[in-house]
Amino acid sequence: MGLLLAFTTVFADAKQHKKKPVPKPAPPVAAPVAIPSGMRLCDAPYPQPAWFLEVPKGFKIPEGYPHPAHYQLLSTIDSSFLHFLQGIPFEKSEPKKITLPVYLDQVVQCREMNIVRTMTLDSALQAEYPLLMSFKAFSGENALNAARIESDEKGARMRITWDKRVCFVRAIQYAQRTYYMCYTLDDPSLKKKTFE
Q1: Residue 26 in this model has a pLDDT that exceeds 50
Q2: Strand-pair partners of 110
Q3: I need a surface site. Which of 5, 17, 61, 194 has the fewest CB within 10 A?
Q4: In 3-state terms, what secondary structure has residue 121?
């Protein structure tokens, strides 16, 4: 009888201490991707992201950035753009195509160019800073239409020469978003005054 009572007690205890299912850990939450809200301007073949015209409410150019009189703001899906740039091979490879926004006569136009990555860091530094990248791009029809592009984790900076005129496309942070400010070298607010 004592053995039966002991067995019943152990069985009852085991039932009470039955393993409860352990909840699975939540999957890691990726950083939210800022979806452009503006009008689509430049479509580009996959995997290039599109460019969008933006007019953010209350926008003011932050300190430390150029303050051109005439400019246009664009946006793109930054993670896709940086991922696309990382996939561009170095100079010895066949160039890839990229669609860039060119700002001329206060209008943004989309231009397709060939792009190759250029070596600016030694291999050890490049491995340590994989998002520091440099590129050169050029038009297939006219090699004088060209661009230099530098990028890091905050976005890209571009200097584009088209039809002998120079424009800039520069990543700018505003309201926790990355926009790209397009302006020209000959903007009246940026012209240096002559020394008297």
Answers
A1: no
A2: 101
A3: 194
A4: coil
C-alpha distances out from residue 56 to 61, 83, 99, 103, Å: 11, 25, 23, 19
The residues that bridge with 97 in the sheet, in sequence order, are 114
Overall pTM > 0.70: yes
Chain centre to alpha carbon of residue 68: 23
Distance separating alpha carbons of residues 17 and 12, to the nearest angstrom: 9
Buried b (16+ CB within 10 A) or exposed e, 93-110: eebbebbbbbbbeeebee
User: Among residues 62, 118, 114, which one has the least CA distance to residue 91?
Assistant: 118
The answer to which of 25-29, 60-64, 114-118, 143-147 has the lowest mean pLDDT is 25-29
Phi, psi of 50 (to 5 degrees): -80, 165
Report the range of poorest mean pLDDT among 19-23, 28-32, 113-117: 28-32
Cα-Cα-Cα-Cα dihedral of 148, 150, 155, 159, to 10°? -30
User: Of 187, 108, 107, 117, which Cα lies nearest the Cα of 147?
Assistant: 117
- Say if residue 44's pLDDT is above 50: yes
What is the rounded distance in angstroms from the CA atom of residue 52 to the CA atom of residue 41? 5
N-terminal to C-terminal alpha carbon distance within the chain? 114
State which H helix or E strand residue 12 sits in. Answer: helix 2-16
The full length of the chain comes to 196
Q: Over 60: is that where the pLDDT of 28 sits?
A: no
